[in-house]
Design brief:
Blueprint (H helix, E strand, L loop, with lengths): L1 H14 L2 H19 L5 H11 L5 H26 L8 H12 L3 H34 L4 H18 L4 H15 L2 E2 L6 E2 L13 H19 L17 H6 L1 H16 L5 H15 L11 H25 L5 H12 L8 H4 L2 H23 L1 H4 L7 H20 L2 H19 L4 H24 L6 H4 L1 H24 L3
Antiparallel strand pairs: 1-2
Length: about 500
Amino acid sequence: MFEGLISFWHSIVHFSTPEVIFYALLSSLVGVVMGALPGLTATMSLALMTTLTIKLPHDQALLILVCTYVGAIYGGSRSAILLNIPGTPASAASCLDGYALARQGLAGRAMGIATSGSVLGTLIGMFFLAGFTPVLGNMALKFGAYEFFWLALFGVIIAGTLTGDDPLKGWIAGVAGLLIAGIGQEPQYAYERFSYGVRDLAGGIQLVPALVGAFGFAELLTAMKERQAPVKISPFDTVIPRLKDVTRYWRTILRSGLIGTGVGIVPGVGEDVAAWSSYAAAKRASKEKELYGKGSIEGLMAAETGDNACVPGAMIPVLTLAIPGSAPAAVLMAAMIIHGVKPGPLIMVESPQFVYDIVAMMLFATIGILIYGLVLTKALVQVLRVPQHFIVPIIFVLCAVGSFAISGRLFDVYVMLAFGLLGFFLRGYGYPMAPLVLGVVLGDLLEKNLRRALLLSDGDLTPFFTRPISAVVAAMIFGTVGWKIWSVTRSHKP
């Protein structure tokens, strides 16, 4: 324990330079602004910022991305409370009581509660990130190729199950992502697959342009389709949170923090599920259920604590298993790989200090959102008045330039446009993007470990089901699929 505290202190000292603090505060502000603007999600923010940090040292680049991530999840509450429009999907649950409080003339108090919940939720998640990651990392050292194959498949399956309304569409999107990951030369014999004579496709699909397209350009197309109405922001009271609001609902805060962190650990689920799960659990346990949806302080606190606790929670499987816990975490993992950091079981052996670096980055991000939430709220809400037709072209240029800057290939811009159009049409038909992206991210891990496992067993499939950990994960996959199919079939019976 003391070794962990010492490592954490070393990370804080390492990042406590004027330049790094400036980067942390600026990127937190960028995250808050992009999160507050409806249609600009945390995933989109991270995808764009990844392209802008390519030339920076890896520690500074990842600090900027982590602060942007935390800031964007928090920033979504601004528009949710003032406009009843979630800035990010994670803030959808905050609309129910946040906007109701704003209509009662308590918008300032609501934003103070959101700030308190976000800060406390992130701190709870950070505690488990620092404490649980080394333990899980050591356990992951016992995993072999068989286990990692099942874990990669489990990530895609569970993401398809828990995102969207139809699990079948989620699974189809996940399998499509795995097929996209197979484009290019296969790893063993360099045989070209799915390239159809196109030379640029032989090198495979670059992850960042695909992510920028699926979550950046697709979001822009969706925002252009759903035209933003003129914004009217009413005056609000003080945003300084009341101590009694925190102390009165400490059980709700702790419960929501634990739920949010737990949901974050589950691959591919994300902050929106964490927020709704925390909100539902708080409502079930509440003594004032009648206030929920009508301006409940407890409900807003639960939603904001849960979605922000999910952020550090989603980093736990990234660091220990190289399996992202949410769509933004998938982008962050891609950025780690681009900057030469290899997440996975060996991280606690090769670079154990990096885990505490991530925790320290989140601490700086938390300080940033606390400052902006208490001091700059009146200035930040003015961002909501910016007309959509000013924002869209700027974001599109950033998407195009960022995709090109990764490798200096015009082909990557075409990839971004193709994935943007694909994401736009798939969303229109109810197909979620998280499983698709997770499939692209985990496709390489799944294929390499499948090949390695078959080589080790000389083509025998038995070890996939007889090794203890492998058997448990396989049973979870088949159980999840079977239960979901049974549930859907039962619900459609007359």
